[in-house]
Amino acid sequence: MSTDKEKLLYVEHCKGLNGLEKVVLREVRGSSVEVYLFGGQVTSWKNEYGEELLFVSSKANFKPPKAIRGGIPICFPQFATHGSLEQHGFARNRHWSVDPDPPPFPKNTSNKAFIDLILRPSEEDVKIWPHRYEFRLRVTLGPGGDLMLTSRIRNTNSDGKSFTFTFAYHTYFYVSDISEVRIEGLETLDYLDNLKDKERFTEQGDAITFESEVDKVYLSTPTKIAILDHERKRTFVLRKDGLPDAVVWNPWDKKAKAMPDIGDEEYKHMICVEAACVEKPITLKPGEEWRGRQELSAVPSSYCSGQLDPLKVMQSS
């Protein structure tokens, strides 16, 4: 039976910027994760050395209803812009609650640092998106410092209506220098180029590198993607389930300067690689549930995507 003191070691409820409620997850080796209830948003992920692994803009606005620029915003019920809904939906600028009755998770886990959040529609939300749902989110910090997000979205409409949505974990990774970053695991795949009116192309390079603005949705992607930060000799490994697409985005200099909540030079230190479901929207009938999961690890850069065995990485961490 864990004591209250032990629970506090792993999960601390406290106040963040501007008095916003947040939860800090900690593991005994020193890694930590910060989750704001506003947006249900992870805003910090630090390794055992206290090094920040996620990018949050120095100009990020922690004042609702403006979404927080950086970390892991959740795009729901849409990615990008369609119809009358705001860009990337509304989940990232709503206040979530701690879930009093979370669904059961596997018992054979050693994870103690986790928080269960829930989002339900307000009456105002129903006016702009006329559906009832329960969005449950579990954020977990593993004993080895891995960060896991599991989303469960259930259709709770009582009028018999299905609903359709798109989704993304809009993850901002912190990198030393964008020009020294490469992404492996998406080569040879088809993608939709948002800078060219969503025209479809096939990736030609043996890895993705950056020298200008990029905004692409890669289709039918593998469950594992590697983001290599050569300067820091670090590789981020993104593993995903239930999310067939992957978005890659960096605004580069001109767009960054036009964005009020990002510094002019900050684009050099961020890359968004997002586990997503964009091309083929998800449809849920009343009572049906969808589940999408993302797991992030940071490992030495001696690894590359072709060598990464997810099971070995999990065991070694």
Automatic annotation (TrEMBL):
Reaction equations catalysed: alpha-D-glucose 6-phosphate = beta-D-glucose 6-phosphate
InterPro entries in the cross-refs: Aldose_1/G6P_1-epimerase (IPR008183), G6P_1-epimerase (IPR025532), Gal_mutarotase_sf_dom (IPR011013), GH-type_carb-bd (IPR014718)
Highest taxon of the lineage: Eukaryota
Keywords: Isomerase
Entry GO terms, CC: cytoplasm
Binding site for substrate: R69, Q87, R92
Pfam families: Aldose_epim
PANTHER family xrefs: APOSPORY-ASSOCIATED PROTEIN C-RELATED, GLUCOSE-6-PHOSPHATE 1-EPIMERASE
Name listed for the protein in its UniProt record: glucose-6-phosphate 1-epimerase
Source species of the chain: Cephalotus follicularis (Albany pitcher plant)
Lineage of source species: Eukaryota, Viridiplantae, Streptophyta, Embryophyta, Tracheophyta
